[in-house]
């Protein structure tokens, strides 16, 4: 099984399909995965396969490493398009996530003021006031909503704790449009059951929720790297384009990544 465990706290820069030249910020341990989801499509593998022994990097370690890398890139005349919080699990799980966001914005302003600060999150901590406030400060607050079907969520996203999709939708609405919804569309099977969420029975209720949330943008995407469950398949260009066009027709900007 080929999975990706990222260095911590800084990795890259890498080229992102959706964000451009991205300098990664990984707030999770460098030797494993810590996530409130256990997605069957996660490029980092299943949670149980990569239990970390190291601790999360401290706020001070993150700031020092980020400044060193930004100074180096600045001296080499390399300018990131985005500073992206991602890596080995859920970034907002870090106990000092809010303070780290403040540090990152200050360092961005000093070394690469044109760069955007992005957070890729599965939305499980958006009800925590400090996380919500921090996400309101970033340029690209990218929050996951793969479906509104609880059965599908438990089969594919596999939350490790309590997860109520209606509560999450209410939390997404509380950003008052200052967010980007990110949704994975795929096909294939898992444990002998279909995980195809490209059909109308999934897309129509999902789109109704998206209208309700009223984000500034939607990103629909499909599998790009090897997945821990090997029976998954990419959604086709035509399927993603059709979903994208339905979102745009609803009056919300949308991009598709294949």
Characterise this structure:
The chain is α/β, with parallel strands linked by helices. Helix content is 33%, strand content 21%. It is built from 7 helices and 11 strands. The strands form 2 sheets. An 8-stranded mixed beta sheet has the order 1-2-3-4-5-6-9-11. Strand 1 and strand 2 form a beta hairpin. It is globular. The two termini are 22 Å apart. The mean pLDDT is 96.
Defining traits:
3-stranded antiparallel β-sheet; 7 helices; 258 residues; alpha/beta
Rg to the nearest angstrom? 18 Å
Mean pLDDT metric: 96
Morphology: globular
Q: Pairing-aware structural class of the strands and helices? A: alpha/beta
Q: Helical element count?
A: 7
- Ends distance: 22 Å
Q: What kind of sheet is the major sheet?
A: 8 strands, mixed
**Low-confidence spans:** none
Question: How much of the residues is beta strand, in percent?
Answer: 15-25%
Helix content: 25-40%
Find the count of extended strands (DSSP E, 2+ residues).
11
- In N-to-C order, the SSE pattern is EEHEHEHEHHEEEHEEHE
Question: How would you write the strand order of the largest sheet?
Answer: 1-2-3-4-5-6-9-11
Summarize the model shown.
This protein is α/β, with parallel strands linked by helices.
Layout: helices, strands, pairs:
Blueprint: E1 10-16, E2 20-26, H1 59-75, E3 82-86, H2 97-111, E4 116-121, H3 129-137, E5 140-144, H4 150-157, H5 165-173, E6 180-184, E7 186-190, E8 193-194, H6 200-213, E9 217-221, E10 232-234, H7 237-249, E11 254-257
Parallel strand pairs: 2-3, 3-4, 4-5, 5-6, 6-9, 9-11
Antiparallel strand pairs: 1-2, 7-8, 7-10
Helix pairs in contact: 1-2, 2-3
């Amino acid at each position: 099984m080929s999975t990706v465990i990222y260095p911590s706290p800084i990795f890259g820069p890498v080229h992102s399909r959706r964000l451009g030249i991205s300098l990664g910020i990984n707030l999770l341990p460098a030797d494993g995965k810590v996530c409130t989801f256990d997605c069957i499509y996660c490029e980092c593998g299943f949670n149980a396969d990569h239990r970390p022994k190291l601790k999360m990097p401290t706020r001070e370690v993150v700031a020092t490493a980020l400044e060193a890398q930004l100074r180096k890139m600045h001296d080499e005349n390399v300018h990131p398009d985005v500073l992206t919080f991602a890596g080995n699990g859920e970034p907002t799980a870090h106990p000092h996530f809010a303070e780290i966001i403040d540090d990152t914005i200050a360092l961005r302003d000093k070394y690469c003021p044109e760069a955007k600060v992005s957070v890729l999150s599965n939305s499980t901590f958006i009800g925590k006031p400090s996380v919500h406030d921090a996400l309101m400060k970033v340029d690209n607050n990218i929050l996951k909503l793969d479906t509104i079907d609880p059965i599908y969520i438990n089969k594919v996203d596999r939350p490790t704790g309590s997860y109520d999709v209606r509560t999450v939708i209410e939390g997404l609405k509380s950003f008052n449009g200052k967010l980007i919804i990110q949704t994975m569309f795929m096909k294939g099977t898992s444990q002998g059951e279909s995980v195809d969420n490209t059909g109308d029975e999934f897309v129509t209720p999902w789109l109704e929720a998206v209208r309700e949330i009223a984000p500034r943008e939607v990103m629909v995407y499909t599998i790009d790297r090897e997945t821990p469950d090997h029976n998954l398949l990419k959604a086709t260009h035509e399927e993603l384009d059709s979903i994208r066009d339905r979102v745009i027709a609803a009056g919300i900007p949308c991009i598709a990544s294949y």
